[in-house]
Design goal:
homodimer, 210 residues, mainly alpha, Arc Repressor Mutant, subunit A, Tetracycline Repressor, domain 2, 8 helices, 61% helix, 0% strand, DNA-binding
Chain lengths: 210, 210
DNA sequence: AACATTTACTTAACGGTGTTAATTTAACGG
DNA sequence: CCGTTAAATTAACACCGTTAAGTAAATGTT
């Protein structure tokens, strides 16, 4: 039974209703496995109604990722209360990994699934705002360590350092998410793998005296 | 026009014809985007003929991965000619990354795409044979470094060390493959990222003197 | 030599997909 | 009070993976 006029607030409400239903299903069973009809059923609408709010399935996914990137950034920002720069950097790695391993399907959507590249222009998130942009937060945290003169002398590119740390932690998490059920490899405990990666990153990047 | 009898060799030939056509398409455009009808057209058969040789699309993919895992192992084995254990270990990392970055869609199928876990029972590859099992090759190479007493004293688990190296290299490669087109991040050169990861791994894992 | 059987393959068809077009229903502005 | 418009629906399209049913050629048996 379709009534007519809808305030902008109501439209937005329905948008987030769709996003939340879709996320729950995507996370539980993967994007490809979930149908538009299924998402619609979940919120008692017809499948075609979704197209009044999103261009296509991909657009629903993008909207979800935008919201979740913000959630990740918010979560990671809690480490800013740590005063020591190096400790803060390590804590960021652990917080990131905790997110990835707590919500593996989430993480897969965000950082492992094939997708069209994310354009800052088209995102609702503000780039270079640490509260919304997790990469910028990482860069900031790395930069603090850099300014404290704790990195090895030859390491002068903060982006390069940040990307190496990201790669290390992401490597551990993504292998865990994708391959850890594989019987082929005799996997060590994920906590041990994560801890060793952190240690290796710190030892490999910081100056010798502690 | 269907003739009747086919030798086992001919059956096998058709199997690899299907595999090769499917791989080419999968690698070019991703598994989901390629249809069975398309694979069939490529080799001038009807779509249903594929089902005479494979249970379903997933089975075609598995067969491809089996072949390609072997190809990767073969490629990586060339590093065994290097005599120094530490150099050999580094060379393995570079060779692995070269494979991943040269055949990104291949690599995605093998190590990044969601898939049912790989069971050694059902694979044609021999586990713990360095010529076919790349993880075993890595473990062997790591073990040589271990036996040479080059790792830090507290590192006693060869699997853990191997998995950390794998995670580091995989992290660099998978971020490159999935995210490097992303305008959000100011990416450093991939060669610099790979080199720094190698350096960090070596510094983080090996004993101090050299 | 004739014929039933088996094999390799094809076309037809099924249920389901993302998406678009056409249609209905309800509230608003005049 | 009625046409317009917005929100929703149902119908429909082209295509997907897969299965069922059908067809043609080589074989083994008689």
């Amino acid at each position: 039974m379709p009534p007519k006029p809808k305030t902008e607030a109501e439209r937005q409400q329905l948008r987030t209703l769709i996003i939340d239903a879709a996320r729950e299903l995507f996370v539980a069973r993967g994007v490809e496995a979930v149908t538009m009809r299924e998402i619609a059923k979940r919120i008692d609408y017809s499948a075609t109604s979704i197209y009044l709010h999103f261009a296509d399935k991909e657009a629903v996914l993008r909207a979800i990722l935008d919201v979740d990137m913000l959630a990740l950034a918010k979560r990671l920002n809690t480490i800013l209360q740590i005063s020591d720069a190096v400790e803060r950097m390590q804590a960021l790695g652990f917080a990131y990994a905790e997110f990835a391993l707590s919500f593996p399907n989430h993480y897969r959507l965000m950082f492992m699934a094939e997708r069209t590249p994310c354009d800052p222009e088209k995102s609702s998130l503000q780039k270079n705002n640490a509260e919304q942009d997790s990469y910028f937060l990482l860069k900031t945290v790395v930069n603090d360590v850099y300014l404290a003169g704790r990195f090895r002398a030859e390491l002068q590119d903060v982006d390069l350092i940040a990307q190496t740390i990201w790669a290390g932690i992401h490597g551990v998490c993504s292998l865990e998410i994708n391959m850890a059920r594989d019987k082929w490899v005799n996997w060590a405990e994920i906590s041990a793998r994560l801890q060793l990666m952190q240690t290796v990153l710190i030892r490999g990047l910081l100056r010798e005296p502690t």
